[in-house]
Amino acid sequence: MATNNRNIKIIMNPYQILGISTNASEDEVKKAYRKLAAKHHPDKGGDAEQFKKIKAAYEQITNPKPEPQGFGFGGFNFHDIFPISFGLVLTLEEAYSGCIKKINVPGIEPFDFKIPAGCPGDSTLSGHIQLPSGKRLFVNCQTSFKKHDIFTIDEHFNLTCEKEISLLEYYEGTKIHITDLQGKTYSVSVVPNKHNQIIRLPKKGYKMQDRMIQKTGDLFIKIKVKLPELSEEQISELKTILIKGPINESL
């Protein structure tokens, strides 16, 4: 069932725009704003629209204002448009690549709602759509991410996962394979005998994009060592080895 929702836009959480957490201090908010404002200021060759969005996000955090009641769209007044609000929980893959969700709201014919690729979590998709019947809707869709089996995502759109290796692989080094949200697989070398190793793949994390801002996080792989179960005889042999020379205190 086709619907016209080409006018949908993403309204990002202002904290996401500044790349900070929602519990950031006043100084952290100011620091993030000044850094981004300097980088994107039009007088320094930056993008004017992106600068406006950064400034608006800062003002929304430091001086929040109530949202206006009522609206108009495309020459139609409030009474011509039916407002609806709903929430969608998306997988990282759905949000990354974009998808179409079937929406069922009481009193309205079911319709397909397009999620644009790169939709950030904790954001609002807001805008006008027209149903096949001709009815016009003004939609506010609150999005969030479903917990992923492999990756976690932070406010900078970095993805983090864990990879387990054996104790022998820890001491000898090994290669591991990691598949990103696009289904692309990378072969990564694990450095031997390195404690608390975290491998970073730049710009291989979540790619957030809307009409004004595009931002790609990194992909981090935390290496975890699986300790083997040992027999009493093996434990005795290990004690002998440990007594003979130094070894890392912990893995």
Give an account of the 3D structure.
The structure is a single chain. The chain has six helices and 14 strands. Helix 2 (26-40) packs antiparallel against helix 3 (48-62). The protein is α+β, with helices and mostly antiparallel strands and 251 residues long. The chain has helices at residues 14-18, 26-40, 48-62, 92-97, 167-172, 232-244, and strands at residues 9-11, 81-90, 99-103, 111-115, 123-130, 136-145, 152-153, 159-166, 174-179, 185-190, 198-201, 207-209, 214-216, 219-226. The chain has two domains: 9-145, Helix Hairpins (Orthogonal Bundle), CATH 1.10.287.110; 152-229, Urease metallochaperone UreE, N-terminal domain (HSP40/DNAj peptide-binding domain), CATH 2.60.260.20.
List the topology elements.
Layout: E1 9-11, H1 14-18, H2 26-40, H3 48-62, E2 81-90, H4 92-97, E3 99-103, E4 111-115, E5 123-130, E6 136-145, E7 152-153, E8 159-166, H5 167-172, E9 174-179, E10 185-190, E11 198-201, E12 207-209, E13 214-216, E14 219-226, H6 232-244
Parallel strand pairs: 2-6, 8-14
Antiparallel strand pairs: 1-5, 3-4, 5-6, 7-8, 9-10, 11-14, 12-13
Helix pairs in contact: 2-3
